[in-house]
Amino acid sequence: MKIGLALEELHRSEAELARELLKVSERHKVDHEIYHLGLDLARWSQQHVRDIAEIAKDYGHDRLDPEAGTKHGPVDAVREKGSELIGRMGSPALLLLRDLREVYIKAAGVSVDWELLAQAAQGIKHRDLLGLAERCHPETLRQMRWANGKLKESATQILVT
Predict the structure, then answer these.
(1) Backbone dihedral region of 155: left (phi > 0), alpha (psi from -120 to 50 degrees) or beta?
(2) SS3 70
(3) What is the count of structural domains for the chain?
(4) Residue 60, by phi and psi: left (phi above 0), alpha (psi -120 to 50) or beta?
(5) Is 26 exposed, middle or buried (CB count within 10 Å of its CB: 0-12, 13-18, 19+)?
(6) Residues spanned by the domain of 82
(7) 147-160 per-position pLDDT tens digit
(8) What is the pLDDT of residues 34-89, one digit of tens each?
(9) Angle at Cα 73 formed by Cα 70 and Cα 75, nearest 5°?
(10) pTM to 2 decimals?
(11) Cα–Cα distance, 118 to 133 (Å, whole number)
(12) Domain with 143 in it: what CATH number?
């Protein structure tokens, strides 16, 4: 079975989404809604990462880091520094749109991963795996809707002024 590989990809993409949400919330601290809700949404992905790491053991993948969504590695530091420099050169409002777009795209990818995993779990009748997907996927959809809503709310004002 290739479910272990699907869990690895989901683990990676959830950790990436968690880091992106943390980065966005830190970058836009002055916007209290972005900051606080971004942190809350990141915690969801961090919990998903822990849950995926735990269930992956049942599929022979015991090396997934349960804290992957909380750490910043050297590549993240370089990427963050580059983003800061870009942000200083451009408008912070445009940077917000770019950041929300990135969150939306990452959350959409995670959503697809959850769908794939749920379909496989249904196919092989693994209740624990299906239960995990049914519990986590709605939160991912909520993350995606939040980013999309903030984009819709902000786009007109930012792009026409």
Answers:
(1) alpha
(2) coil
(3) 1
(4) left
(5) middle
(6) 3-160
(7) 999 999 988 888 88
(8) 999 999 999 999 999 999 999 999 998 888 888 887 866 555 555 455 545 544 44
(9) 130
(10) 0.85
(11) 6
(12) 1.20.1260
